[in-house]
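Hi U.,

Before I forget, here's the chain from the pilot set. I'm dumping it here mostly so it's searchable later in email.
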Amino acid sequence: MIARMSTPDDLDGWLRLAGEVEPLFGPMVDDPAFSAGLRQALADGHALCVKTDDDDQMQGGIVLSPEDNEILWLAVASAWRGKGIGRALLEAAAERLDKTRPIVVTTFDRGVAAGLAARKLYEGFGFCDLAPAGPNPAGIPTVIMAAVGPQK
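Structure:
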């Protein structure tokens, strides 16, 4: 599987993916600010995705902020979890971010069972907890993680 640059034509797939993960992230699909930010990321080339070959279904996506050297959003559709898609997205993101500066991401706190797979993925890339980030819009505790130095 290959993570590729996402385009504005992928917007509907992104919104379906966002709708699936709203219980963990909070309302997004009907949030004009989220939609505007996603459209901008797609237009700016700051979004990568993995899609099925046969029917072009969105399996997962990642949104980056090169300026802040930050992973803004990463999600994998439930039917595709555990198949290496998150890893492929994170590898592609690491290639596009500045490895000489800390790469940061806000993700689930260690005590959030539903977020353990995401934490394990980030930890496998050298990310460590940096600071508490408070609850996300879904009310779930989050933490800022950072990776310093060469990424896998």
